[in-house]
Write a structure and sequence with these properties.
- Helices cover 32% and strands 20% of the residues.
- It has 259 residues and is an alpha/beta fold.
- It has a domain of 178 residues: Rossmann fold (3-Layer(aba) Sandwich).
- The strands form 2 sheets. Strands 5-4-3-6-7-9-8 form a 7-stranded mixed β-sheet, with helices on both faces. It has a two-stranded antiparallel sheet with strand order 1-2.
């Protein structure tokens, strides 16, 4: 009986040995960059969809050309403020300290127009802390926010001059973007933290560029009473902590500030 084989032979020295049968390869494994490319394309599609929804929401709220309002807040941060306001409950109350020309006010207000909420803005509109110098910006602000003016309560004061009647709370979202020195940021946070609703959010702008803002955030997180929720570029937000596992020693009061 003859046995047929596909194996070949080769001669090594004086010995004849069969060659190994070549391995049969299966389907080629997908290259890593293909998966990354697909994820990148999906991410871009999602970003475009989010951008379309945001622009449509702004138009429905009555805004045209809001992107042209001068601002130090990045587009990604403005979109995040819009989302934070959209995540608030129906009839939400939102507080903004530091409104400048109204770009952030428009994005917050557009979301609140859909949520049936209201927005309180605190500013002198005299540009004291802005790099371009002092000037009256109140008229320009009013023109920019005109479509949502009926949802706004405007408090034209310095933050240190606010009274409990000016910002009664409770607020579902507080956005702090005023004076960024440590003393001023700490004063603003101390003023609003007891006026934040139980599940409310406090957002800080310029958290990565101003030491005073970062210092206050660090103190708030270190005391164990607040928990970091998220960060986008130069915007960070947190809410009152509700730890599942925490020791009594982990909670303490914020350090006092010398007057």
């Amino acid at each position: 009986m003859t046995i047929e084989s596909n194996a070949t032979t080769s001669v090594v020295g004086d010995e004849t040995t069969p060659d190994a049968k070549p391995a049969q390869s299966g389907p080629a494994a997908p290259r890593p960059f293909v998966g990354r490319l697909v994820r990148l394309m999906l991410r871009r599609l999602c970003d475009r969809a989010d951008d379309y929804v945001l622009r449509r929401s702004l138009r429905l709220a009555g805004f045209r050309g809001v992107e042209s309002i001068p601002t130090y807040t990045m587009p990604s941060e403005l979109a995040t403020l819009y989302n934070l306001a959209m995540w608030c409950p129906p009839g939400a109350r939102v507080l903004e300290i530091g409104s400048y020309l109204g770009a952030s006010t428009c994005y917050l207000g557009a979301a609140l127009a859909h949520r049936g909420g209201t927005l309180t803005c605190v500013d002198t509109w005299q540009n004291q802390t802005m790099p371009e110098g002092e000037r009256d910006t109140y008229g320009e602000f009013l023109r920019n926010v005109a479509p949502i003016h009926d949802r706004l309560t405007l408090v034209r004061k310095r933050a240190e001059d606010l009274t409990p009647a000016d910002i009664p709370g409770p607020y579902d979202l507080v956005f702090l973007d005023g004076d960024h020195s440590y003393a001023a940021t700490r004063r603003d946070f101390d003023l609003v933290r007891e006026r934040v609703a139980g599940d409310g959010v406090v957002a800080f702008h310029d958290c990565a560029e101003w030491e005073g803002v970062s210092h206050v955030i660090g103190e708030a997180l270190a005391c164990g009473q607040w928990a970091l929720v998220g960060k986008v570029d130069n915007l960070m937000w947190m809410r009152r902590a509700n730890w599942s596992h925490a020791s009594p020693q982990s909670r303490r009061e914020l350090p006092s500030v010398d007057p």
